[in-house]
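Below is a filled-in request sheet from our internal design queue. Each sheet records the structural input a requester submitted and the sequence that came back. We keep these sheets so that new team members can see what a complete request looks like end to end.

REQUESTER: design group, bay 2
PRIORITY: normal
MODE: inverse folding
CHAIN LENGTH: 194
BACKBONE (tokenized):
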């Protein structure tokens, strides 16, 4: 578990980096929001309840990537696929970071049905703010493609990917240090540029 000093350092870094980035990403974010709104023919921001620090629910922000067809089916649009592949759909989460609901680095915020199944020491994962990126995110950066190749994607996620993420995230919390966070950010940027 992070000490109060470590939590302070982590939060201070999040605030400083977010304050630096907001003027840089504001214009692209507005353009992408308008693009997502036109592409999905709806309000371009997607919100969803996720489990955060201390198991508190918060509203996660993302750019909308799915369009509702006339028959009620949701499909990922070409623009949406581009947003997902480049992770630009996650850009609005900079506001979750400013609000103190998320961090730049940490375990990804889970939905109910997963985070609430954490047992014993696994609950240590909920002692930190969920992150925009982190070691599990980096390892499973191709998660959508990996799941699409499985006969039963949900079962594969629950029996293979999820347990590995829990172990990786537990290790992250147990052995947190600031330099590792910087490395995870750097690895994420490198992945996105390839």
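RETURNED SEQUENCE:
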């Amino acid at each position: 578990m992070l000490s109060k000093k470590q939590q302070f350092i982590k939060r201070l870094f999040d605030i400083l980096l977010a304050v630096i980035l907001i003027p840089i990403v504001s214009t692209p974010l507005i353009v992408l929001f308008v693009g997502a709104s036109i592409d999905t023919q709806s309000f371009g921001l997607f919100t969803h309840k996720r489990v955060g620090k201390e198991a508190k629910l918060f509203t996660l922000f993302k750019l909308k990537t799915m369009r509702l067809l006339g028959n009620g089916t949701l499909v990922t649009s070409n623009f949406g696929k581009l947003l997902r592949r480049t992770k630009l759909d996650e850009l609005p989460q900079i506001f979750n970071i400013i609000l103190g609901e998320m961090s730049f680095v940490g375990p990804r915020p889970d939905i109910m049905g997963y985070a609430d199944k954490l047992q014993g020491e696994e609950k240590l994962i909920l002692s930190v703010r969920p992150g925009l990126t982190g070691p599990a995110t980096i390892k499973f950066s191709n998660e959508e493609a990996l799941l699409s190749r499985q006969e039963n994607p949900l079962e594969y996620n629950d029996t293979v990917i999820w347990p590995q993420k829990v172990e990786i995230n537990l290790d992250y919390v147990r052995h947190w240090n600031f330099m590792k966070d910087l490395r995870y950010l750097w690895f994420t940027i490198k992945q996105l540029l390839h």
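SHEET NOTES:
- The mean pLDDT is 93.
- The CA atoms of residues 25 and 112 lie 30 Å apart.
FILED BY: M.R.
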